[in-house]
Amino acid sequence: MQQISRMLMKLFQRARSEKPGQVDPRAAEFTLSLLVAMYDRSGTGYVKARSAAAALISLSGDTLLAKYRAFFQFYAVPDGKAALITRSALRSLLTDLNQIPAIVGEGCTLSCVEIAIHDCFHGVLNAAIVEEKFLSWLRSEPAVLLWLPTCYRLSAMEMVSHHARCR
Q1: What residues contact 105, with CB distance under 8 A and at least 6 apart?
Q2: pTM score, two decimals?
Q3: What does 148-160 look like in DSSP terms, one character per residue?
Q4: What is the pLDDT of residues 46-80, one digit of tens each?
Q5: Which residues contact 100 (CB under 8 A, 6 or more apart)?
Q6: What is the secondary structure of 33-89 as a DSSP string?
Q7: What is the CA 125 to chain-centroid distance, rounded?
């Protein structure tokens, strides 16, 4: 928790210097509270760095493709020349990401995660998939993660300006 707290302090300090007046001085504290609520429900004082990273990536203002690639980098396992996502790694990612809508009572069940894993690995004979297959599956907007592109689109729409007047 202390490492994550320090990282968040640095992250939001940099954001405040880049965008003065746009970042709440308590942003690091609020974000840490959110991460604790999502990933430390039993009060152990421990949050996995990878889980926290997945949440921060998903809530960032980056493009969907950049988020998807970052998920792959954090959850993939090295396999010689390439990195691969195993079923176990995908289960961890989906479980971690499912905590975000779950915090507001919108999470899905464990069977929903298993269905998504089966869908992602449909027709795959190997124990793991490459980044291309992973990205292709995410672009198909699986139901378990439908909230992610929806939130992205809503966020992107905030920047749209129409020069029309209503009567």
Answers
A1: none
A2: 0.86
A3: HHHHHHHHHHTT-
A4: 999 999 999 999 998 899 999 999 999 999 999 88
A5: 38, 55, 58, 59, 147
A6: HHHHHHH-TT--S---HHHHHHHHHHHSSS-HHHHHHHHHHHH-EEETTEEEEEHHH
A7: 27
